[in-house]
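Two proteins, back to back. First:
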Amino acid sequence: MKKSWVCLIYSFLILIPVSVSSQDASDVQEILSALDELIVQKSACHAGREKRIEGLKKQLAVTADTKKQYDLCGMLFDEYLHYQADSALNYVKRRWHLQGMLQTPDLKNEVLVNRAEVMGVMGMYNEALTALQAVDTAELKDRYSLTYYYKACRACYGWLADYTAGRREKVKYLEKTDDYRDSILATSEPGVNRDIVLAEKKLLLGKPGEAVSLLNRTLSQKITLQQQAYANYTMSEVYEARHDSLKQIYYLARTAMADLQSAVREYAALQRLSRLVYENGDVERAYRYLACAMEDAVDSNARLRFMEVTEFYPIIDKANKEKERHERRLSRNMLISVSVLAFLLIAATFYLYYWMKKLSVMQRHLYNTNRQLVTTNHNLEQTGKIKEVYIARYLDRCVGYLEKLEQYRRSLEKLAMASKIDELFKTIRSEQFIRDERKNFYNEFDKSFLDLFPNFIHDFNELLTDEGKIYPKQGELLNTELRIFALIRLGVTDANRIAHFLGYSLATVYNYRSKIRNKAAGDKDRFEQRVMNL
């Protein structure tokens, strides 16, 4: 379905009237691009003709009426004539047999002209002339039959003139062609077909301007694809006579599009267009056009067209191969260049990767150094804060102790002056004063520490297993275990100093530290270091 739409689009494109005066190089490139696409879709156009042929064959197979069979064979002949000459000849032979059964002289002459047409397409010009000479022109009563006969004669002598080497014979065949052209003009009815022939006559008479006017009028009308092909081809001959190669290419391209759209395989425009395109330097496009023309000429068994193609094919094939060799050399050079560049790029990539890796290591070292510096700064800041707080508290505490010692001395002095010797000794021997002061000291330490590290208890318990978490009793700020690790957090890691500070034995401090370390979640050996980082 998609291919059918493509063919319809190109058919519409060909039907558009053309203003010759507005054509330029861009128009030529546009029409050539449209032709390129149509060549790619050529099989879709052929499918339409094959479908029509199949339908006619089915009708012929079920028709018993001899006259109807004759007519159907004629329709199949028309479909095959410029599509597949061998098949067209088979239906001519069948028509000959059927007209003998019908015993109608007009039909006999019609079949002879049919035979001449197909023989001409196949390049068998002597056989074509023999068939035309066998026609009894006296029996051609109506204008259609006469015109059909004259067209066949003109085509046959035109082919002979094109492919005759001797000048004398060529002139003779050209005169014959001109005579039959005049006969066509005399017998054909006014209309598109007659105007096209008349334009051709005007061109031969040296009146290209009149020929262009006739053809422009023809192309502005709604005409068949076959008429479009004839009109555009004649227009290309006009511009060939005027030595206007650009417009000649344009109208040959339009002719080729009409030929391809109508799904014929026997044509002349595309191979002529190939020559012109080649002369303009577009070897690749010329080769595509000639290859398409050769393929169709072979499929249609049109010997004349095949000869036209093979005459020029070696030249363009050589040019195309030379172009391909040049492109291969260019591709090879480009490949070598790209390979060298790729190698250099890979080398540069590895070099860059080496330095990026080195830079990454340097960045990582710098990052770690920065982290250590931040940590050190933080520790210094905390240490400074700790020193500031504890020095202030230490001074306050020292002043407080001095005052308490002064009060304690005065109380002892009073007892001595009062001669209360027993109470004096009792007070001296009592440890309550020391216990109270130690308790106050620890309480003051706990407050100071928790002021500095308010989240210490929570953070410390995060380092322990669920079963080993430690919380102070109600009314306590820190208990003994927490106080030991509070000292470690402050940087007091020496067991002797901790024992002296808390008033415990060295063994007791060791036991506490070991007991808590065993409850640590994670690496137990790094537990105290993790505490110091809280």
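And the second protein:
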Amino acid sequence: MIQTQILQEAPFSPHRLNKYASLHTCGNGRTGIRGCHEEAYTDQQRGMFVAGFYHRANATEVTELVNLPDITGMRIELDGESFSLLSGTLMSYQRELRTMNGELYRELVWQSPAGQQFKIETRRFVALAPLALVACRLTVTALGSDAHLCVSTGIDATQTNSGRQHLNECSVRVFDHNVLQGCYQTTDGQQQAIITSRCVIPSGASSSFSAKNRQLLQHISLPLQAGEAVTLEKFSWIATSLDADAGPDNTWAQRCLEALSAVAQQSYGHLLMEHTGHWQHYWRASRVGVESDDPQDQRALDFALYHLKLMIPAHDARASVAAKGLTGEGYKGHVFWDTEIFILPFALLNAPEQARQLLEYRFRHLSPAQDKARRNGYEGALFPWESAFSGEEETPEFAAINIRTGQRQRVASALAEHHLVADVAYATAGYFQATQDGEFMQQTGLALLKETALFWMSRAVRRHHRLEILNVIGPDEYTEHIDNNAFTNYMAHYNVQTACEYLRQSGHQDEAFFRRAEDFLTQLYLPQPDQQGVIAQDDTFLSKPQCDLTAYKTQQGTQAILLDYSRAEINEMQVLKQADVVMLMHLLPAQFTPHCQAANLRFYEPRTIHDSSLSKSVHAIVAARTGQAAQALQFYREACRIDLGDEPHSSDDGIHAAATSAVWMGALMGFTGLDYQSGELHFRPALPQGWRQLQFPLCWRGSRLKVTIEAQQFTLRKTDARPLTVRVNGLSHTFTESLILKGSHDEI
């Protein structure tokens, strides 16, 4: 059995309720349930989300991922005392997410205010198969004398998205004295959800039911004999109108009852065993192992891969990965550029069919993207900065109120942060490089590449005897409405260049397109390195005054600088949320010399606060690729603490999905120098001091590979005998089953 790390909660603290609710989320890519305690706490934010289940609460709001009715809550009374970790005495406490099988486990001994002691164990998991199943178990033991237990649990539809109610109750019913079912639909009637739950209670227990105030509950009462454990198991079936077998007919609710009945005949333990088998298959296919002098390195990688499994909707191309995955309400569950640039590479090199689905999500929304381009006066496709289910623009018009100025900041991303268009093309090209999936390119990829290329050719304007891209926002969102952003220009150039390459290879006959593209490629202004090798982030950045960022760097991730400066003031200083040029070096390393990459890292890092959760991992990758292994490891470990650290950026409203994936990227693309965007599988190993071995699987053009990197050896094995060519430190090697290169990293 694969033994991955266990993510333990620190000693219980009410101040960390929502941090661990995010970190301890259970899920399967389709459903995510926050790792909240079963008992209620005032500040605890419960959440259950289904990928793609969006709704707009009213005309003044944007669409958001709906927080569905809760099924995990329990009111537990012991001899008339309500169980709470805020009352009585906590004698012992253990709570952990078992990442090897996705089970959230808690065991504690609690002494009630009356002095009676009880051992309480709670367990839950969201099944990998069937995807609609959620299983929970409660075990209570009276440790002193006999006692009495009362449990109330069921389906709680009082859940909202931070006060916004999305669902109407259609019906709530009790079947056969042991099954609860609630049928709900969004207030516009467009989406439906059916939640069915059944409690398996021990003999001697009595139960009753209530349905009021949007809560359908079962109330269970039973005696506790001293020293004897009593167990209650609860199984739930989460169905939505997105499911393939959903339908408007009257049999849907009945089918949900039958599906739940079939699985509830089995015990929690048996279902967990099957569930664990599915997780073991995932870990064998995907796990990255590191032998390090710091066990936190492995812990971070396991955490990252666990959550990557939870966030990618492998079951449905109509959904993509939200900025917080399915772990919270942050960013309203919207899809950003993060998916294509940070999350898709993991899917591509581990389960390429999932990467294809993430691109098909964009292709399904090509028409709305074309409409947005036309509305803004452009050709081709302009994808929304924030996307949900429909493919329409979902970016809010205003951000939060600036507490220094009292003004609401208008969000300009939807109007000017257009690099997303090139990011989609970049991911499309990378997918084909890694898979050689010709069918995808013919049916999907070529259209994405051509429409995104058309956008850039219409977006550029002729000025100063060249083509320029004006009034944009790069990934660095502290610098707005600038001209000739280096990241945007280079990525747009790459977009058009790859579109031409693949369209020509496919026999595309649109000569007018090719002539126009060639003019764009030769005329587009690409900022060049100066004598020191530095590329200007945009036309005006280098002429702006510098600012001492020392104090803000110690508070990175908090946007503390906004307490001292308005966004308009920050825009006129050399202050970066994340460094666009460093990001560019990460994505297109073949276009820049190692000297140029190192020069830009050296120049821009002192000007970067790292308020973006993506910043440190990218710096780690570029530092590793330029031979600065010690600095790379420092950046990497700081990136690993984005969610796992004692003072994370903020995980209360969900983990940082892209930053989580960047932990995987930092290890592989940084310390192994992995690159595939140019069409070859390329490694440039650079293990940092303290890392003795790094081992990981890859999927490349239909072959399953196992890579092992040690200080004096590089080993590449695969499961088939087809010849494969890879480049290691620039040298080409062709092999069939295994490749072993001995020597130091520089000598290989």
